[in-house]
Amino acid sequence: MRAVRFEHFGEPSDVLTVAEVGPPVAPPGHLRLRLALRPINPADLLTIRGRYGSLPPLPATPGREGVGIIVGATGAAGDLKDGDRVVPLDLIGTWQEEVVVEPARVVFVPEAVSDEAAAQSFLNPLSAWAMLDELNPAPGDWLVQSAAASALGKLVIQMSVLRGVRTLNVVRRAEQSAALQRLGADAVVVWPQDGQSLTQFVKKTTGGGLAYALDAVGGELGGEMVNALSTGGTMLLHGSLAHPETMPINSGRFLTRSLTLRGFWLNEWLGRTPLDEQRHTLGTILEHMATGAIRAPEVEATYDLGSVREAVAHAERSRDGKIMLSG
Ligand SMILES: NC(=O)c1ccc[n+]([C@@H]2O[C@H](COP(=O)([O-])OP(=O)(O)OC[C@H]3O[C@@H](n4cnc5c(N)ncnc54)[C@H](OP(=O)(O)O)[C@@H]3O)[C@@H](O)[C@H]2O)c1
Questions:
Q1: H-only helix segments in the chain
Q2: From CA 42, how far away is CA 241, in angstroms rounded?
Q3: Mean pLDDT of the region 66-82
Q4: 181-214, pLDDT tens digit by residue?
Q5: Which terminus of the chain has a lower count of CB atoms within 10 Å, N or C?
Q6: Angle of the 275-291 helix axis to the 123-135 helix axis, nearest 10
Q7: Contact 43, 240 (CB under 8 A)
Q8: How far does residue 250's CA lie from ligand 1's centre (Å)?
Q9: Contact between residue 45 and residue 315 where contact means Cβ atoms under 8 Å apart
Q10: Ligand 1, residues at Cβ distance < 6 Å
């Protein structure tokens, strides 16, 4: 079978190869999964470059999520059988044709959910869901988020709609506004914007009451978002897309408003959340996808595993949907 591999950390165009390797052997009580589709996520690119928070031993296969069909159910697989379509829960190494998983670490995919949606139902949806749970805004409250047109940002908008929470969405390209409004965004602002600070826009839009923020960018924008929070406000920082990364925070405002700035990392959430709860959350997300209450972010292009370098180059350009790997 084919597996994408890297033997050293570095630029994806230098280090990624496609190797022919033997199929994985499932120990008793495990399942073999034939994967159909997996997305390219920012975390995968950080891992390949050796810049992610936890790194695999080398050589390694990238990829953290995907969807597949069970091809090797064993006696201990419970209700699962060959031919079932499932999503693995937190599996590293999905950019290959087959993987081995424990039955307790897969979740059944409802028929109404497409492969494109199921393949990206773990990393971003679980993070969005968990972050909203942590902030716990009440119906009617405002939440501001950066990189709002990202896959995760679009999920945050839809999950906020389910909770009755209003979202103020920061993007860097004006043409992304309409799509976000169709998903239920209450306000969209392009930043940076000449002549207007983010704080002024936030004040005008929310009337001054903004207690919740999710930031994927950090840097100058992250600092502006912290500065825009009202008294008692909390921001979860979950990404670091900006260069330079340093966030200019107004220290006086931060302390007098009693603000909180906390990091969020799904790995840490998974480490402290019982497996049953993780499965329940993923199952709930897939049910919302089946009813259409949560629409998975679009797929802009799908490449065969053999064209992984072209796929990664596409994923690193500005785009309007996820890049997928098939095969
Ligand atoms: N902490 C966690 O556990 C966790 C879990 C999941 C995701 N995340 C983070 O969530 C973020 C989004 O992930 P995703 O998979 O949804 O990404 P994605 O769909 O690939 O989209 C990336 C988005 O980031 C925007 N962006 C990139 N660089 C930027 C910059 N310097 N300033 C402002 N915007 C910038 C892009 O804007 P354009 O459209 O203008 O190019 C695009 O909308 C990433 O930072 C990811 O690491 C964190």
A1: 12-15, 42-48, 115-118, 123-135, 151-163, 177-183, 198-206, 219-227, 251-256, 266-272, 275-291, 308-315
A2: 9
A3: 82
A4: 999 999 999 998 867 788 888 889 998 789 999 9
A5: N
A6: 110
A7: no
A8: 25
A9: yes
A10: 41-43, 123-124, 127, 147, 149-152, 172-173, 216-217, 238-239, 241-242, 264-266, 318
- Strand-pair partners of 212: 143, 234
Residue 325 · residue 38 · CB < 8 Å: yes
- Rg (alpha carbons) of the chain, rounded to whole number: 20
Mutational pocket test of ligand 1: of 183, 241, 272, the residue with most ligand atoms within 8 Å of the beta carbon? 241
Tracing tokens 């908008």 back to the chain, one arrives at 157
Q: Are strands 67-72 and 31-39 parallel, antiparallel or unpaired?
A: antiparallel
* pTM to 2 decimal places: 0.95
Could you give the angle at the alpha carbon of 116 between the alpha carbons of 96 and 121, nearest 5°? 85
Ligand 1 pocket test, pick from 47, 145, 152 with the greatest ligand atom count within 8 Å of Cβ, gives: 152
As given in the structure block, the two tokens for residue 68 are 């597949």
* Averaged pLDDT of the chain: 95
Which ligand 1 atom is at minimum distance from the Cα of 127? 5
- Residue 14 pLDDT exceeds 60: yes
Distance 42 CA to ligand 1 centre (A): 7
For the cut 70, the answer to whether the pLDDT of residue 81 exceeds it is yes
SS3 breakdown of the chain: % helix, strand, coil, rounded to 5? 35, 25, 45
CA of 241 to the centre of ligand 1 (A): 7
Q: Tokens in use for 181?
A: 């409004």
